[in-house]
Specification:
526 residues; alpha+beta; 12 strands; HAMP_dom; transferase; 14 helices; single chain
């Protein structure tokens, strides 16, 4: 049942991701479709306007030529004076015969007019004042219509086609009196065919383009969403099993999604480290506390049975129990320090410390505590204003651990050297003792938790084997390095390296720290 519920949840989330692809593709397709529609409308309108201008010019040219010829007739237009005004060539053309070329010099109509009259798209009708048809070119007879001015052009729609109807009053050239009317109908066959074909091809091209670009958009969006789905899959797997080692694979792409995948993996690695640290902490504490708890429990049981009446046994048991309790307290504190050292970058991301000041203070304090030791400090190669990115208390703790460790393992020579210097990019700190030394085999293990070179001797001195582990975690958490060089019977030197901060980096971190403090103070005030 639980597995079925999980698979249901997972399938629901995958469906959401599918809808994300569908949503993005729909948006892209809609954008492309609207763009193509707008583009098509603009092209269609532009071509239509240009073609319409040509058709209007054709109609106006016909009307103008007829008007220029008919206005020469001084009287009302009649069949008797309109038809004779036509040349024999024009009459023959209107009858459907071949034009007569011998009478061209006395033509009332030129060749352009003849070609216009024979244009199958143009229907010409001349009306007299009584609205009677006195001349037409054999085309469709356009009904007469009263117009307000001398000229009017209208566009009509018939059977999904457009026509232009042009009306013109004919005025006699000398008297300016209206003698008749010219009506020209332009069927615009070419225009209607052009616009129909243009619309058809635009619809086809738009549909093909929309389908093609939608397909391309789907491929692109799927490629973009694929890493997101992979991240979601890994997140679900890690959510189901926090110990899962599943990580996002390398997408081999150089963009923000690859950066997000890398950051996501780093976040999962950090979470895994925290989980492992928690397990190690619980395991280590339970393991190390088992012995002192058992000792205290043994003494208490012994006192309960028969030791209460014997002062010596009572005192011995109480002293042993107190000693073990103190050791437990010290162990717990060290474990907490170790856990905190592993989370430095969260707690102190902007801390800056001046190295020389901390070295002087720690060496001075340790010299006072251990008066039987000579602790020398050499900072000749370290500029006094050198800063590194570390919390001041942690640098002090680190130095105390190393100096205290050297003192614990010293023999007859009660000396220690602490030196510091600055190379091109790094600050070097060396803590040297002249004690027992560490074998080459054990040098790689001394930073492990609870590892003791000489367990019996270390337990006598109160060590738990956590000091160097804390030191290593502190150094690595601040992007530093720590190593050891040692010769058995001659002593050891621990070498620490930290990246040195430039003035610009130091100022930037100081500003961030001040901003964080101001933010914290504001929260506390509120």
């Amino acid at each position: 049942m639980r597995m079925m519920k999980r698979s249901k949840k997972r399938s629901q989330k995958e469906t959401k991701h599918s809808s994300l692809v569908l949503r993005w593709v729909s948006i892209v397709a809609l954008t492309i479709m609207v763009s193509f529609i707008v583009f098509s409308v603009i092209i269609y309108s532009f071509v239509g306007q240009q073609s319409m201008v040509q058709q209007k010019e054709t109609s106006n040219e016909m009307v103008s030529k007829l008007n220029s010829s008919l206005k020469r007739i001084p009287k009302e237009l009649e069949i008797a004076n309109v038809v004779p005004a036509l040349t024999p060539s024009a009459r023959e053309v209107l009858k459907g015969n071949a034009p007569i070329s011998s009478d061209q010099h006395n033509s009332a109509f030129n060749d352009d007019l003849l070609s216009s009259l024979t244009n199958p798209d143009l229907s010409v009708v001349v009306y007299n004042l009584r609205k009677e048809d006195v001349f037409d070119n054999g085309g469709k007879i356009i009904p007469f219509k009263n117009i307000k001015g001398d000229y009017e052009m209208t566009r009509i729609f018939k059977n999904h086609k457009q026509e232009l109807i042009t009306y013109q009053k004919v005025r006699a050239a000398h008297s300016e009196k209206v003698t008749g009317y010219i009506v020209v109908a332009n069927k615009m066959t070419y225009y209607n065919g052009l616009m129909k074909d243009l619309l058809k091809w635009m619809v086809r091209i738009s549909l093909i383009a929309i389908v093609l670009f939608t397909l391309v958009a789907y491929i692109i969006v799927r490629d973009i969403v694929k890493p997101v789905k992979e991240m979601s899959r890994v997140a679900l797997e890690v959510n189901d099993d926090p110990n899962s080692t599943a990580r996002i694979r390398d997408f081999h792409r150089h963009d923000e999604l690859q950066e997000l995948a890398v950051s996501f993996n780093q976040m999962l690695d950090r979470m895994q480290r925290y989980i492992d640290q928690q397990k190690e902490f619980v395991g280590d504490v339970s393991h190390e506390l088992r012995t002192p708890v058992a000792v205290i429990e043994g003494h208490l049981n012994m006192l309960k049975r028969w030791g209460k009446d014997e002062p010596e046994i009572l005192e011995e048991s109480i002293d042993a129990s107190l000693q073990e309790a103190k050791r437990m307290q010290h162990l717990i504190q060290e474990m907490l320090d170790l856990t905190r050292a592993e989370q430095i970058n969260v707690q102190y991301p902007n801390a800056v410390t001046k190295v020389s000041e901390v070295l002087k203070r720690v060496v001075g304090d340790m010299s006072l505590v251990h008066k039987d030791f000579v602790i020398r400090l050499d900072m000749d190669d370290l500029p006094s204003d050198t800063e590194i990115q570390i919390y001041q208390g942690h640098l002090e703790q680190l130095l105390v651990i190393l100096i205290d460790n050297g003192i614990k393992y010293s023999t007859d020579r009660k000396e220690m050297n602490v030196s510091a210097g600055l190379s091109q990019y790094d600050v070097h700190i060396i803590v040297q003792d002249f004690g027992e030394g560490i074998s080459e085999k054990e040098q790689s293990k001394i930073f492990n938790r609870f590892y003791r070179v000489d367990k019996a001797r270390t337990r006598e001195k109160g060590g738990n084997g956590l000091g160097l582990s804390i030191a290593q975690k502190l150094v690595t958490s601040y992007h530093g390095k720590i190593g050891v060089e040692s010769v058995e019977g001659q002593g050891s030197q621990f070498i620490i390296e930290f990246p040195a901060l430039t003035k610009a980096q130091s100022q930037k971190l100081h500003k961030r720290e001040e901003a964080e403090k101001a933010k914290k103070n504001k929260k506390e005030t509120n």
